[in-house]
Design goal:
335 residues, two-stranded antiparallel sheet, alpha/beta, single chain, seven-stranded parallel sheet
């Protein structure tokens, strides 16, 4: 079985983002279908599952996604790595706030929903500008010492924020946006993380489905709870502008008897030793297709040819990797 490491956490080379079972891509499947999808992913060899306390807030309730994952993996929990995330909401930040007890209270709720007594990887979902990241890092260190979490991470941060946190309590993983259309992490995040033995866990590694080749200018996204309506690359103009990149992936897919989505994941795995992407899908067949990308190996020559071809393409639309609780992508939902 192939494996990779996120810090000291041993995981499958590709993980599973579970958000789509509660939020983000329109109508969600029946609960039993979602549970079955997670169990099928595990049976296929996936040992890394990602969720968050807020997945489900838009249409359901806080912890909706954690509850699904917890029920699905209860019987094999010790064989997998679970990642979840907390938000420190503005209304929780008060002059008399006890940050340790605040974060621990979030964690305890997540543990109950996940049906476990520890979380392998606990992220701060977004930095809250009113709470120094160094203070959060200190609390995470205490929770590690208590055995409630094995490691911790940050999401959508630049290298300066990461370094501030890492100096207090070593960071296990950074979960940033990274894919062929969003490569900001190449500049500083990956070099820093490789040097410090920090894992990089890209979310949206297939660019919200665009790199699969299945999204066209005629694609209609769902009217309710569909994040793709706000993704910069998925305006009709940018879909058209970025089509040459999909064409390149389709050519390589034919050569490797793979899909464009699999090539985009194989490209990422070849490029960095510390990367573990977490593609998200609510479709069982697509989940297995994505995981199967760990069996597709690009030769050095194929990789450099692919990279060279991609570098010649102009990219249309950009979201970036720096977000905070105050300046967050999900604020689109409030408009």
């Amino acid at each position: 079985m192939k494996k990779r490491f996120i810090g000291k956490l041993e995981v499958s080379p590709i993980g599973m983002g579970c958000m789509g079972f509660s939020h983000g891509y329109g109508k969600i499947p029946e609960k039993q279908y979602s549970i079955e999808a997670i169990r099928k992913a595990y049976a296929f060899g996936c040992t890394f599952f990602d969720t968050a306390e807020v997945y489900g807030n838009e249409l359901y309730w806080e912890g909706h996604n954690e509850e699904i994952l917890g029920e699905a993996v209860e019987n094999f929990r010790k064989n997998i790595v679970i990642a979840t995330k907390l938000h420190i909401h503005d209304e929780e930040v008060t002059p008399n706030m006890d940050l340790y007890h605040l974060i621990k209270s979030h964690l305890e709720k997540s543990l109950k929903r996940l049906r476990t007594n520890y979380v392998d990887l606990y992220y701060l979902h977004r930095v809250n500008e009113f709470v120094p990241v160094e203070d959060v890092a200190a609390v995470m260190g205490k929770l590690i010492d208590e055995g409630l979490i094995k490691g911790w991470g940050l999401s959508q941060v630049d290298v300066d924020t990461l370094d501030k946190a890492h100096r207090v309590t070593p960071v296990t993983a950074v979960q940033n946006l990274y894919n062929i259309l969003e490569r900001d992490c190449d500049d500083e995040i990956f070099p820093y993380c490789i040097e410090k033995n920090i894992g990089v866990v890209p979310f949206s590694p297939i660019a919200s489905g665009f790199l699969s080749g299945k999204i066209t200018t005629k694609t209609e996204f769902e009217k309710v709870d569909d994040v793709r309506k706000f993704v910069p690359q998925l305006t009709k103009e940018n879909i058209e502008g970025n089509q040459p990149i999909v064409n390149i992936l389709q050519n390589y897919a034919k050569k490797k008897k793979a899909t464009p989505a699999q090539i985009s994941l194989a490209w990422m795995l070849k490029k960095y030793p510390n990367v573990v992407p977490i593609p998200g899908s609510k479709n069982q067949e697509r989940i297995i297709e994505n995981l199967s990308a760990w069996d597709i190996e690009l030769t050095d020559e194929e990789f450099y040819e692919l990279q060279s071809a991609l570098d010649k393409c102009e990219i249309y639309g950009h979201r970036g990797i720096v977000e905070t609780q105050q300046k967050i992508f999900s604020n689109h939902w409030k408009k």
